[in-house]
Write a structure and sequence with these properties.
41% of the residues lie in helices and 24% in strands.
């Protein structure tokens, strides 16, 4: 279900929106029966920003399996990692985008 973004999601969204990484991201995007924090349709990339309630979550494992079976790559970042080092987080997303989108650097 859609909800207000956390401060970490808001911070990351500032770096993803408006084709900032060369591709379009959508936030709170539905994929099948699930809503994801961020999705890049062109790269088939899901980006999730999680708090400690997601630690060893069977629900998240099932979601990730659902996405992978449909050709999506899932990146999960902990809230504190995003908050403490947004540049590393964005760098990691760029790395995966470069692997999945031909011609994107």
């Amino acid at each position: 279900m859609r909800r207000a973004m956390t401060r970490e999601e808001t911070l990351l969204w500032k770096h993803l929106r408006g084709n900032a990484l060369g591709v379009k991201f959508r936030r709170q995007h539905p994929i099948g029966p699930y809503f994801v924090d961020f999705a890049c349709i062109k790269a088939r990339l899901v980006v999730e920003v999680d708090g400690s309630q997601h630690l060893e979550s069977a629900y998240d494992l099932a979601r990730d399996r659902y996405f992978r079976r449909r050709g999506w790559t899932v990146l999960r970042f902990w809230n504190e990692d995003v908050w403490e080092d947004i540049f590393w987080t964005v760098f990691r997303i760029r790395e995966v985008l470069a692997e999945r989108v031909p011609g994107l650097e």
